[in-house]
Design goal:
- Helix content is 68%, strand content 0%.
- The chain has 227 residues and is mainly α.
- Helix 1 runs antiparallel to helix 2, helix 1 runs parallel beside helix 3 and helix 3 (63-78) packs antiparallel against helix 4.
Length: 227
């Protein structure tokens, strides 16, 4: 068991380190694409790598993969790539709050549509032509692209909540490892399969927000203190 745990920890650390390096490269490409300045992109990537919070990118934590997929989604959204649903879905699986990144492809799709319509208007000097070109290009294929992206991304969020609820809130037959049982006793935690958790009894059980509120004291303006 000890060898398996050590192997998993080592594998997770290597995966996170690779994602950290990839996220720095994607961040460089993203900033260069937006600002058209390689110097600014280089400085941002260096600061991203040496900032004190980079300790989270080396530990067994979800931050490196989340950052990599977030930057990748932003860059591909600017380029209006059609296969944006997959990284968005993976981003949502890594962290539930990754679902808000769905706003990037939606925004840039609408922006490109409005920019095209504006260019047509400047050439023809006619307000009615603007409306016509917007209606012409807002076809079923456009709506299908946006709708499919929303469905694929949100469905991963919902499936994650269902999976977590079934794993934690339904009775389990297998015995948990001794070190986990000891940790729950020392920290007054709720074991899976029990009905003592408030989260299991709410109408809409959202796992991530509950853990943040219950154990991390995360909430609106809760992080800030007068010191």
């Amino acid at each position: 068991m000890r060898n398996i745990q050590s192997t998993m920890m080592l594998a997770a650390t290597r995966i996170n380190f690779a994602c950290f390096v990839k996220s720095a490269i994607i961040l460089y490409n993203l900033i260069e694409h937006v600002f058209k300045d390689t110097v600014t992109a280089y400085k941002a990537a260096i600061l991203y790598g040496i900032n004190p919070a980079s300790v989270f990118f080396s530990a067994v934590y979800s931050e490196p993969m989340f950052a990599y997929l977030s930057f990748y989604t932003m860059l591909e959204s600017i380029k209006c790539m059609s296969a944006i649903s997959l990284p968005l879905a993976l981003l949502t699986l890594v962290r539930s709050n990754g679902v808000i990144n769905i706003g990037f492809p939606m925004y840039f799709e609408l922006k490109n549509l409005c920019d095209f319509a504006s260019g047509e208007t400047q050439r023809k000097r006619n307000i009615l032509s603007t409306v016509w070109h917007i209606l012409k290009f807002m076809t079923l294929s456009y709506f299908f692209t946006i709708l499919s992206t929303i469905i694929i991304t949100v469905s991963q969020f919902i499936l994650l909540q269902i999976y977590t609820y079934m794993k934690f809130c339904t009775p389990i037959d297998t015995l948990l490892p001794t070190h986990i049982l000891q940790c729950t006793i020392e920290n007054d935690l709720v074991l899976p399969g029990t009905k003592n958790s408030v989260w299991c009894n709410v109408s809409v059980p959202l796992m991530y927000s509950y853990v943040q509120k219950m154990y991390w004291n995360v909430g609106f303006l809760k992080y800030y203190r007068f010191k």
